[in-house]
Amino acid sequence: MKGKFVTAVVVAVLFSTGAGAQEADQVAEGFFGGPLFEYGVANVYDSTRAASRLDVYYSFVYDILQFVKKENGHYGARYEISAILKTKGRQYADFKTETGTVTVTDYPETNSRVRRVQGKLSFWPAPGKYKLELRLTDGESQKSLRREKKVLVRDFGKPGVHLSDVLFGDSTFCADPTTAFPILSKRYTDPDKGFRAVLQVVGVPETTAVHVKWSVRSGSGEQIWAEGETCRGLRHFCLDLGSRARKPGRYTLQVEAKSAEGRAKLKARFSVAWGEAFVDTSDLDLILKAMRYIANKQDIERMEMASPSMRRQLYEDWWKARDPDPSTPENELRQEFFRRLDFANRYFSVPEMNIEGWETDRGRIYIIYGPPTHVEREPAEMNEASYETWYYSHLHRRFVFVDKSGTGLYELVKSD
Prior knowledge:
This protein has helices at about 1-15, 285-290, 295-305, 310-320, 330-345, 360-370; strands at about 35-45, 50-60, 70, 75-85, 90-105, 115-125, 130-140, 145-155, 160-165, 165-170, 185-190, 195-205, 210-220, 225-230, 235-240, 250-260, 260-270, 375, 385-390, 395-405, 410-415. It is an alpha+beta fold. Among the domains are: about 1-30 and about 275-415, no CATH class; about 55-150, Immunoglobulin-like (Sandwich). The strands form five sheets. Strands 3, 4, 5, 7 and 8 form a five-stranded antiparallel sheet that branches. Strands 11-17-16-13-14 form a five-stranded mixed sheet, with no helix packed on it. Strands 9, 10, 12 and 15 form a four-stranded antiparallel sheet that branches. The longest helix is centred in the C-terminal third of the chain and has 16 residues, at about 330-345. The radius of gyration is 24 Å and the shape is flat. The two termini are about 30 Å apart. About 30% of the residues are buried.
C-alpha cells in the first residue's frame, strides 16, 4: 500500500498544473523577474596606449528607473553610472562617471524588464590589486544601487607571457570587440546568433614564441574540445564555442600559454541553454538531485549508492512504476518532469552566481506545482528588494519570493 500511496502523491504533484503558461515558448520575455542590474569587468591589453586597460560593462532594465511624463506625452528618466577604483589600502586610484537619459512613448515601457540600458567605462590603472565600486543612481529619486568587486590589473609589459580576461559574445563579437557588447551572463541561449569567446595572448618580448592551448570541459569534467597554436607578440583569439558545446549544461574554458619566459593560465565558466531541451538528460547525477523534489529520500539514496549500470536501471524502474499510462510508448509523468526542469533552467537560472534554475526556490516550486495561475510583481525600485508573488488558485496556495541581492536570485520568504 505504501508504494501505491507514494505513486499517487508523485502523480498528483507533477500533474497539478495551474492556468498559467504551459510551455516555455508561450511565456513572454520578462514575464518572470530576472536581474535588474548586471555588470562585468575585463582586464585587457590596450595596444594603442601600450598599457593595461580595465573595462567595466553595465546593463540595467528600464523598470529600475523612475520616469516622469513630459509635455509631449512621452516619458523620460535620467541616470548616472559611476565607477570608483580603490587601491588595496582603500585609497582612490581613479573615478569615472557618465550620465544618460531614456525616453519612451508609452507608459508600459517604463516598467519594462526586457528593454535595457547598457554601456562601458574604461580605466588605464597601474598594475596591481584594486577594489571596484560601481554605482547606479536614479536622476529623479536620487536612490542608488551599488556593487563591489575585487579586480586584478595585469602587467602586460613584464617579460613573459600574459592572458587577458575572457569576454563572451555572439558571432558578430569577433569583428570588433572594442565596440561590441559582451554577453554578461556568459550563457548561450540562441544558436542562430552563435557563441564566441574572445581573449588576448601577449608575449614579451614580441619575438618570443608562445605556445597556446585551449580546451573545453563539461560540468562532469569530460574534455569535449582541445586545440592549440603558436604565436608571437600580441594575438587576439576568437574561439567558436557554439559549434563545440552543444549540449545544455555548464562548461569550463581552460587556456594555457607557455613561452621560454614563463607561463599563464586561466579558467572561465559558461553555460549552454538552448533548443527544446535545457537539461542534459544523460547527466543522471544532476537528474537525481532534481528528483529529490518529487521522490522520497530513500529511493534517491538507493540510486545514488548503486553502480553506474545499476543506477540507470533503478532510475528506469522508478519511472516505469509511475507511468500513468503504460499502454503508450511515452511516460507522460517523466515528460512533464523534464518539461518543468527545462523551464526552470531557462527562466530562473542565475549565471552570475553559477546557479542553475532548478536549484533556485522558484525552480523548486515550479517543478513541484507547475506554472502558477497568476504572477504579481512589485515595481522595481533602487536600493530595494524586488518581490514576486505566485498564486495557484486551484490549490489555494501562494508563494512570495524576494530578490534581496538584485542578481535575479529570488528566495522564498512566505508560503500559505
